[in-house]
Amino acid sequence: LARPTMLSRKGHHDPSPRREADVEAHHPRHPPKSTARPPRRLLIIAAVACSLWYLCMQYMVQSHAPAAEPRASSDLDMYSEPPVQRRPVPAVASVPPAAQLLPKVAGSQPTPAVAAQPPSARPQAVQAGQAQAKQDDEAPRCKSDDQFTDCAADLVKACGRWRNLCQSTCTPGCDPAADNDNAAVVLESPHVERVEAARAPEAEPQTCLPFSRRLCPPLNLSLLDNKEQKAVHDSCGKYVKQERNLPSPPRFCGAREGRLNPCWSETAGNGSALSYCLPHFFILGEMKCGTTTVYELLLKHPRIVAPRTKEPRYLQQGRFAQTTLSRYAVNFRRAVETAAADTVTFDASPVYLRSKIARFWLARWLPEAKLIVLVRNPVQRSYSHWKMGYEWAHGKCSDGDMAQRLKEVAELLTFSSIIQRSLVVTYWDRCRQLTGGESAPSGFSLMALNDKRLPPAEQRHLHSPAATLNYSAFGRCLLTQDHDLLLEYADELRGAWPVEPLKGAMSRAKHAVGSCSEMMMLPPAALQKSGSYAVELERWARIFPRSQIKVIVTDELTRGSQRIMNETFDFLQLPRMPIGNQSRFCVRGKAGVMDVLHASELNITIGHDTSEHAHLLAPQLKVGDCEPDSGHAHDEATGSDLHRIEPRVQERLRRFFEPHNRRLYRFLGRDLGW
Predict the structure, then answer these.
(1) Which of the 8 DSSP states describes residue 169?
(2) Cα torsion through 245, 248, 250, 255, rounded to 10
(3) Model pTM score
(4) Number of alpha carbons in the 13 Å side-chain half-sphere of residue 127
């Protein structure tokens, strides 16, 4: 390095010559080590070199790191822009013959996706993830079917580190296609064996999931009074609990039969071997999207057997905690009586799409199940949802005190009123997540902000409705959602509306609206179910391969029912069949739709057949033509009858559903034009 430049006492460069001795006297070439200082230029060069070395190492680490798994969707994500899909969804391959799709049994080749691998063959990230799971002792663990955890939501990286792992439900591992967008999370599937497992006595803990147990609850539960029903539920509780706490690995007690439909042979208490079947496929929902139409069209196929009731709802929250597997299997006795190896049955409960219990119970116990999901223009679905609730409310509560309460608030029960209240409630909860505070009022309730979100009482008369909402961060957030709509509800939000007698009438009608409409008219149910197609499909696709999920668009089913059903029969590994010309079916009443578990559901007529199998019979499902109301308009483009909706309200709904629709289009790989 060059010697330092000579400076004068004033700090300026001194050009006058000096003898080298004088320079050496002031700047010795070899000063003592204790007083040595590295030159400033050397320090700068060293710092630059270290920075370059650090940046290079960061680049090498990131370039060799595994791709990050897309984070799980939260409720708040429903309102944000969907993630960009990394590659287009591949077309579903042609369906192999039914004989190739029979379940693998003991002694056969394991499925590649769940085949065991030696530790040395597993990806390094998987081993690290398993080590982390063992070290994380404080993380909650899933010990039973009652404690399902969304393992896919806790997957930080593909084939990487897992948190809050369900030890008895999820198996950490790498699918061969883990770097593919269509890869499913590997779950611990039940052992499928032809050898029957030993079933423990009913009063003792079970080691396998049994079919041949007493029915809990019994089929005649609805004929009992409330006191008798409570006694039945108390006695059945211990049996249901035993089925929810089985040791790993999971397996059914029976021996799997060689049929396309999942059926098992199990020895009953009297020593006789009986067969039991569960569904081959499930219609997950969404309700009011044509599930009844698909149900009826499927039954035109001679190889598809109807369940005892259209919607068993075994995996619904509440019912799952009260029902044994033996009680659920009663719904599929007709499939047992059919000798054909390729005959199948199904469960058409449209509440499963949004059920975490259904998602993980099926992934654990019926991982080969086929899943059908129907989606419909969300604006039209919302109207149908409200219309069903409105018809039930005025049919179920046509007279008496309940009818009077509904009559007092009739102006607030129209579609425009209910759906716009649903929008306000939804925006309220959205802004609560962003700014904090309490949740929106539930159901048919007054919407009034608390004092902390309003100007002081003595100043409120000085504020306009817009200024009142603009007072707090929460109110400003509301105004950014739908400014005009929120101004229309500003008086209610600030407590200036309604006044008596309407205020008292709303309070009295709160329970009646929910009870009489079967909860269908309570805000924001119609809105939430219409806007969550993509969110729920993404959740199912994390634990089921895309090849096991069939999405049907309601409008396409209406204008091309034979084509759509041919695709559906192919999806189910069944030969194609003509279905006739009728493309729409609607349920008439509730008879035959659901099992009855409570006395409050005793509006379903129970048959009085005294034959040998009378206890297995269910009310007949009443299905007929869909009668359009006077507000329908025929859409030539889709071939569908559309509900007439006030243009201003329809535009508000269109704007609300737009981001949800885009997210669905990305999942499907095509635009539906909604």
Answers:
(1) T
(2) -110
(3) 0.72
(4) 8
